[in-house]
Amino acid sequence: MITIGLDFGTHQTKLCVEKKEGVECSYKFVKFQDDKGIDHYTIPSVINIDNRGLLSYGYIPQKTKGRIIRYFKQSVFRSTKEQLMSQEDAMYYSIWYLSYILFDLEKTYGTEFSVQMGAPTDSGHYENAKRIAVQILASAYGLVEEVFNNDKNEFLQCDVATLKKKTIIVDYTDEIKDNYGILVFPEAYACLKPLTSRGKIATGMSLMVDIGGGTTDVSFFTIENNLPQVYDFFSINKGLNYLTNVQPEDYKALSSFEPSHHSALSNSFNNIKAVFESNDGDGQQCEGRKDSNVTSAEEIDAEKTKIFVKELNSKCSDLIQRLQFEFKEQTIIPLYRLNDALKNRPLIYCGGGSTFKQLQTSYHGFMDKKLISHQEWDIKSIEDSDDIIKKGLCPILSTSYGLAISVANDNIKKLPFKDIFENIRRVKEEEDANERELYEARNRCTNLYDDYDTYK
Question: Which of 284, 279, 264 is nearest to 55 (CA)?
């Protein structure tokens, strides 16, 4: 049995493969080769469109002519005024990008695998995010298997206009989801599974912060029997692409794309804006980087970091206030005892952004900061673990690892906050019951004495 953990990222995509034989599981991260023949455990979430309208994906040589499309993953799950392309356009790009990856997966594993995919979402929009993820992945399956019959070369020879005609965006149904064996998890939840399985995190309240390329996902959880119990999760529309101050000078709208030179592209996507404009309409070499990775702490803008921290702290503050309310409702313990306890509770960081020290900060009471590492993983079951540890990739690969851990369903249940204090409440209820029993016993004794006195 093979399960693929698909961490479809705004900046880079990661895949982890679980092979299960009986009760034994082994894990392998998929490697991607760049144009220089070097293997990587990630692949850039970018698409290049050349002057003929042909698309290339992932590792694109710097000298490649054309323009880069990026941030389509963020735009497909988030519809905001600030995004640079429509959700429909982002849907097409996401389907084509995942199709490119599926061609290679089916070449290696056939069709005998299931995919567990992450989605950026909060607890109130989980079902909608799940539907979008299933639509993208199921449409990609259809393109690979039914339209191109697993012929990747034919797929790569299609220009944008032809590819759009051939692409059918399927409607979500439970049958399609089950047919392809697709499970979708909140990204804020996905990386909890490997974290908790080895008992390396103490039981009690913990906060997980996953700083990605386009979003930052947060989950508030406890651990019971080495399993995460989630009480809330949310996602903010800010990540490394917001925090970086590196922007190419030629970052322009596609409205300046001349139809006479690029008719195939212009006729298909007149309103696409998230592109890197080349120097002229004749397909000269595109300026700017061809990947999406942030390689230096100097790229992190200090003022934007303040805004980012303030927004995240506000979300965490709301969460803690709900916790404090339930604490006062459920217990008679002074509130300062809860606040003191939170200072020692883990604040666990993962994701590419978490590897930058200036982004590892405390949030509303949670002060025990911890960057996820191999020590929280079942490292013996992971192939190439020494290389992954050496390169410091555990925080970056953690979500795909968690997604690869096979489970029966993706029905994530958010527990009520009052349950966090169940044990304390149970003790108080037992004390109240004992007091009532003692009171009733005393009353019985008094009544018996009064009866005896009357009898005399």
Answer: 264
Q: Per-residue pLDDT averaged across 145-161, rounded?
A: 97
Q: What are phi and psi of 303, to 5 degrees?
A: -70, -40
Query: CB of 18 within 8 A of CB of 37?
Result: no
Q: What's the pLDDT at 186? A: 92
Say what the pTM is.
Answer: 0.84
Q: Which helix (H) or strand (E) holds 178?
A: helix 174-180
Distance between CA atoms of 376 and 363, rounded to whole angstroms?
A: 22
Rounded CA-CA distance 10/52 in Å is: 26
- 69-to-35, 46, 251, 358 alpha-carbon distances in Å: 18, 6, 11, 29
In the numeric block, which tokens belong to residue 149?
């019959």
Read off the tokens for 436: 């009532």
* pLDDT value of position 437: 63
Range 171-196 average pLDDT: 90
Q: Residues with Cβ < 8 Å from 86, sequence gap 6 or more?
A: 75, 271, 272
Tokens coding 410: 């993706």
Cα–Cα distance between 136 and 98 in angstroms, integer? 8
Residue 56's DSSP bridge partners are 48
Name the most confidently modeled range: 365-369, 398-402, 444-448: 398-402
Mean pLDDT of 194-206: 72
Residue 430 CB: number of other CB atoms within 10 A? Answer: 10
Q: What percent of the chain has pLDDT over 70?
A: 79
Residue labelled with tokens 């709208």: 253
Phi/psi at 305 (nearest 5 deg)?
-60, -40
